[in-house]
TrEMBL record:
The chain crosses the membrane at residues 41-58, 70-90. Keywords: Coiled coil, Membrane, Transmembrane, Transmembrane helix. This is Putative membrane protein. It comes from Nonomuraea muscovyensis. Residues 93-123 form a coiled coil.
Length: 155
């Protein structure tokens, strides 16, 4: 009977599952999904299917490898679709995560901007109040001009 000591770290457990880099796999899936969503992919697939069908219809019997109902072609296209769908979903999930982070950063930036605007508004209001209590140059000139006119008007 082995007793585990609480003051010692546990031994690492070895697993039979393969280890893979999730980030690298995610980037690869995004690249594949991005390619699957292009006109180039549609053209490639159209050319591939057309060559497949023409080859198997026009080639002599001993060279044709997938006769008319093209069952092997259907299998190949189903296999491609069964891999494409999860890759596209994985890419969409990663994009949604990035969008969520971007949205959070935008919201925080907007909150900071709003706080700065409110601060500047209070500062401007304070300056306006302070200026209304301080005699401005134009006010002093007008007052001196008025006093000068009063002195000139006295006999």
């Amino acid at each position: 009977m082995t007793t585990e000591r609480l003051d010692q770290p546990r031994d690492l457990r070895r697993t039979m599952r393969p280890h893979y880099d999730r980030e690298a796999f995610g980037r690869l899936s995004e690249r594949i999904a991005r390619f699957l969503g292009t006109a180039r992919f549609i053209v490639y697939m159209t050319v591939f299917v057309a060559v497949w069908v023409i080859w198997n219809v026009a080639a002599p019997g001993y060279l044709a490898f997938d006769p008319y109902p093209f069952i092997f072609l259907t299998l190949m296209l189903s296999l491609q679709a069964s891999y494409a769908a999860p890759l596209i979903l994985l890419a969409q999930n990663r994009q949604a995560d990035r969008d969520r982070v971007q949205y959070e950063q935008d919201r925080e930036r907007a909150e900071r901007d709003q706080a700065e605007i409110e601060y500047l508004t209070r500062e401007i209001a304070g300056l306006r109040m302070a200026l209304s209590e301080v005699a401005t140059r134009d006010y002093l000139r007008a007052e001196l001009q008025r006093l000068l006119e009063e002195l000139r008007a006295r006999p």
